[in-house]
INAR1 protein (Sakesphorus luctuosus), 544 residues
Amino acid sequence: EDSLQSPQDLQVLVVNTNFTLSWSHPGPQRGVTFWAQYRGPDTVGAEWQDLPGCCNVSGTACDFSSAITEYYDVHSLRVQAQHAGHSSPWSRELHMVPEHEAQIGPPGIELQPTNGDIKIKISPPEANQPQKMWIDDTTFKYNLIFWENSSDPQPRRLSVFPVDTIEGLSPNTTYCFRVWATLPVEGKEGQLSPPCCASTTHRGRISCFTRLGVSAAPSPRQNLLGSTGRAAAHPGLGEPLPRLCPLCCSGYLKMYHEDHSGKWQSVPGCQHIPGTNCSISSIITTFGGSLYLRVQAQGGHNSSCLSREVRLDPLITNEIGPPGVKLDISDAVLHIQISPPGDELMRNSYGLSYRILYWKNSSNAEEEPQVKETKQTVATIADLAPDTWYCVRVQALSQHYNKSSALSQEQCTLSPAEQTLPLVLLVTFTVALLAVLVVVLPLGFVLYQAYSKLRYVFFPSCQTPLNIEGFGGHLCSSPYLAAPEEPIEDCSIIESMITYEGNQIHLNDWKHSKESSRDSGNYSNDDNTSGSKGSAETLEKEMV
């Protein structure tokens, strides 16, 4: 028991979802068996469990693929040696995340010779497996290496789609192929598939188009560039003259591990055309994807084989048309309005910016153009010389795609003549003075009239006296005020007689004397009061 040592150098090899645990043991191997245990992500802190497929094994490796079902969590492993009822101490623990350790296995490959070419079909590394380390098979990219099966092979390397055709091969020759998958985002390189060989066949009498390309030409409909497909002028079909039948296929179909040969579609407007080129602008409905094109010629009852495929990326193949330009000058500032080429989808895809070239254009000399760059469709140029012709041309740029348009048509405009400053000031002062005379004077007149009326009504120049008797005064009248009422003195008639010793006086006689005195006129309040007081004193004297 003392001489039984622990296993060392634990390693895990993960290929797709296949897990292999290996280790080394420094002691003698005869009669020694090994026992492995693990703790999964759901048993942290719990007791160790026996690792299925790795209990009581006599070698230094075991397969435990059935025990792992979680590929993105941490797993812990340990191994113990056993001999004659004795057990060694447990080895040092090994911690691993399956997805980090996993390698891409070799993909499957099928070959099919056809008319001098070889059609290749690739199956993903985890095809037909119930458990998968990588769920989306379309994320795989495939590389191919092939060579002639001869004494002096010259390997060639290509990037291929899951279903592709290898062209340009020698007839009646055996070629061998190997494929491996990659995950560019994760930076993983897969394992090579076993070599697979096939022999090419002899090409038939019907020739194929050997030259097919895509070029760009201006498209008035979208103010950008469409595309034209070209092929060999004589495919060897004899009379009548051959007619082209271009076909197209969306690029996204190439990512799938399915045969898309039945999904090619005819290009509208390009069926059975007698020439060797046609416009394919009608099939460019988006700028974000790619298209694949191929051509077949037909003459009489004969048809050529399909040409090789050519890829069309609209954003790369197309050219950017020149923008439109409109000029306007105000206050010695030149305003430039730019009309972007193409539609909004195309502009957003390219991320256009603009280079503005402007210069003075006079009969004496033509200056070198000055350059101004902007990402906006409106730009201004200040500090213009008076009474000078300025010319402008604009160029659209796409830095991401390293593209530039042709320069727009030259647009010129004349800056306004210089104006004298004193004349401007005189005109400004005159206009301001007229505005004051027209607006301020009538307004002042109206306010003055209103003030006069209000003062006359509420604050007259003469005050109305309460009693003007004996003063020779007159009452002020106003058309806006009601006439004041004449003050009337309240009097009471007392029909009684007061008898004193020696004399008897009737109040009627006193009243008659009083009324006679009132006939002489009216009295004011103050005078009336004093008069009343005097009458009372007189009466009192007479009574005495």
Remarks:
- Residues 108-200 form a domain with the Immunoglobulin-like fold (CATH 2.60.40.10).
